[in-house]
C-alpha cells in the first residue's frame, strides 16, 4: 500500500512541476518557442538570457554533468525546460513554487530579495490555477 501511495505522490508532484513550467512559459512568452526580447536578449518560451545559459553550463561542468547548452538551445522547449530545472537545482529552489518562480524571474539567489518578483510569482500562480 505504501508503494502505491508513494507512486501516487510522485506522480502528483511531477504533474505539478509540469504545470508550473507551463505557467512560467505562458507568463514569459505565451508559450511561444520563437519569442525573442531584443532589449534583454531573452529567447524562447522561457525567455532565457545568455547569462542563464552560461551559469547552467558552468554548474553542469562543476558537477560533472555531461550537458553543454548553446544560445540556440533557448528556442528548444525541452532544452529550455532542462535549463530551468538545472538552474533551480543550482540555486537550491527545491520544490517551493515561490522560490522557483521568484528566483527564475529575479536572477537565481537574488530573486527572493527583489520585491518585483512577488508580482511575477503571483501572476504565475494565477496562470497555474486558471490553466488547469
Structure characterization notes:
This protein is mainly alpha-helical and 132 residues long. The chain has a single domain, classed as Lysozyme (Orthogonal Bundle), CATH 1.10.530.10. 61% of the residues lie in helices and 3% in strands. The chain is built from 5 helices and 2 strands; from the N terminus they run αββαααα. It starts with a helix and ends with a helix.
List the main descriptive attributes of the protein structure presented here:
132 residues; mainly alpha; Lysozyme; two-stranded antiparallel ribbon
Percent range of helical residues:
55-70%
Which regions are unreliable across 5 or more consecutive residues at pLDDT < 50?
none
Rounded mean pLDDT is: 90
Could you give the count of β-strands?
A: 2
SS-derived structural category = mainly alpha
How do the helices and strands line up, and which of them pair or pack?
Elements: H1 2-29, E1 36-37, E2 42-43, H2 50-62, H3 77-90, H4 97-106, H5 116-131
Antiparallel strand pairs: 1-2
Helix pairs in contact: 1-5, 2-3, 4-5
In short, what is this structure?
With 132 residues, this protein is mainly alpha-helical. It contains five helices and two strands, in the order H-E-E-H-H-H-H.
Amino acid at each position: 500500500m505504501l508503494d502505491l501511495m508513494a507512486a501516487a505522490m510522485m506522480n502528483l508532484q511531477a504533474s505539478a512541476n509540469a504545470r508550473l513550467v507551463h505557467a512560467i512559459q505562458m507568463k514569459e512568452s505565451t508559450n511561444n518557442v520563437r519569442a525573442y526580447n531584443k532589449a534583454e536578449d531573452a529567447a524562447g518560451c522561457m525567455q532565457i538570457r545568455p547569462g542563464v545559459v552560461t551559469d547552467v553550463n558552468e554548474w553542469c561542468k562543476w558537477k560533472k554533468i555531461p550537458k553543454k547548452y548553446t544560445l540556440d538551445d533557448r528556442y528548444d522547449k525541452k532544452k529550455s525546460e532542462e535549463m530551468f530545472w538545472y538552474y533551480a537545482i543550482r540555486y537550491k529552489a527545491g520544490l517551493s513554487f515561490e522560490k522557483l518562480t521568484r528566483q527564475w524571474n529575479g536572477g537565481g539567489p537574488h530573486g527572493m530579495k527583489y520585491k518585483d518578483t512577488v508580482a511575477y510569482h503571483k501572476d504565475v500562480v494565477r496562470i497555474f490555477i486558471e490553466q488547469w
